[in-house]
Write a structure and sequence with these properties.
Blueprint: H1 4-8, E1 21-24, E2 27-30, E3 35-37, E4 44-45, H2 59-70, H3 75-84, E5 90-93, H4 99-110, E6 118-122, H5 125-134, E7 138-142, E8 156-162, H6 168-174, E9 175-186, H7 192-198, H8 207-214, E10 220-233, H9 235-243, H10 253-261, E11 267-279
Parallel strand pairs: 4-7, 5-6, 5-8, 6-7, 8-9
Antiparallel strand pairs: 1-2, 2-3, 9-11, 10-11
């Protein structure tokens, strides 16, 4: 079957006119004449006229995420997501490096789903580069989560949002009948042992409740579970987890290095998230 971008092309839509897309070599276009160049790293930018990328993750943030996720500390989250996805195609919004999407596709491949494919959407071109190289089953797209998603109506068997922004109306639009939305949100005590020392942003209570309210009358809640673990993190792990999230924009690098230098050789840190599943 087609791989990468070619494998997900039938799911994509022009960000300007919502028409179907075709590919001719290094160019993707629609019948209205809009054209988009495929990056040499294999990803495709489908930013619409109202799209924003000023809050996209930097190269340093994406690199830190790749390091931390590569150590397997958030593998319980990835497994919990995979347990709740029963079909494809899979769309991940704010996909970053494609780590969670890759685990989900592995699980689908090992069960009854033949040749699953996934679309990794992220506003960061640095993340898109890594997602494009992460897995042959992933098509990597640069897009803004708060704009019209460059995805056709009703084609996604599952939509993932892991610590990422989401527009309920757009998610409902692209979700196939019977499809599922799997959302991971942090609990207030997530990373609590290092938040104050490193100056990380706090987590508001009640995120899962607000999530359900945002999708009220659109999708039916079918599950909500807390996932808790204790992670044993080395200073390098803690430096990476601080750099890979939104706190990286608010903590000076020298302050972060100094705070990490004061830590023990191993620090026990709480992983605490809620996994919410909604269904069309």
């Amino acid at each position: 079957m087609p791989s990468g971008l070619d494998g997900v092309l039938p799911l994509l839509a022009c960000p300007h006119c919502a028409a179907a897309l075709w590919r001719d070599g290094g160019v993707v276009g629609c019948s209205s004449g809009h054209r988009f160049d495929v990056a040499r790293q294999g990803y495709l930018s489908l930013l619409g006229p109202a799209a924003r990328t000023d809050t996209a993750d930097s190269a340093e943030m994406v690199a830190a995420r790749a390091v931390f996720l590569g150590e397997g500390h958030y593998r319980p989250i990835a497994d919990a997501i995979a347990d709740r996805v029963g079909r494809g195609p899979v769309l991940e919004i704010g996909a970053g490096t494609g780590y969670y999407l890759g685990v989900v596709l592995d699980r689908l491949t090992s069960t009854i789903v033949p040749d699953p494919v996934g679309v990794a959407l992220d506003s960061s071109r640095y993340a898109a580069r890594r997602a494009a190289a992460a897995d042959a089953r992933i098509g990597s797209i640069v897009a803004d989560a708060w704009s019209l998603l460059p995805i056709r109506d009703g084609v996604a068997g599952a939509v993932l949002s892991v610590f990422a922004p989401r527009d309920p109306a757009e998610i409902v639009r692209v979700l196939a009948p019977g499809g599922r939305v799997v959302v991971v949100t942090p609990e207030p005590d997530h990373l609590v042992e290092i938040r104050a020392a490193l100056g990380l942003l706090t987590v508001d209570a009640g995120k899962p409740g607000r999530l359900a309210a945002a999708f009220a009358d659109r999708l039916r809640p079918v599950g909500q579970d807390e996932l808790r673990r204790i992670m044993r993190l080395a200073p390098a792990d803690i430096h990476a987890v601080a750099q890979m999230g939104p706190s990286a924009r608010h903590v000076a690098p020298n302050r972060l290095r100094a705070a990490v230098a004061e830590l023990d050789e191993v620090t026990e840190v709480t992983l605490a998230v809620t996994v919410t599943v909604l269904q069309a």
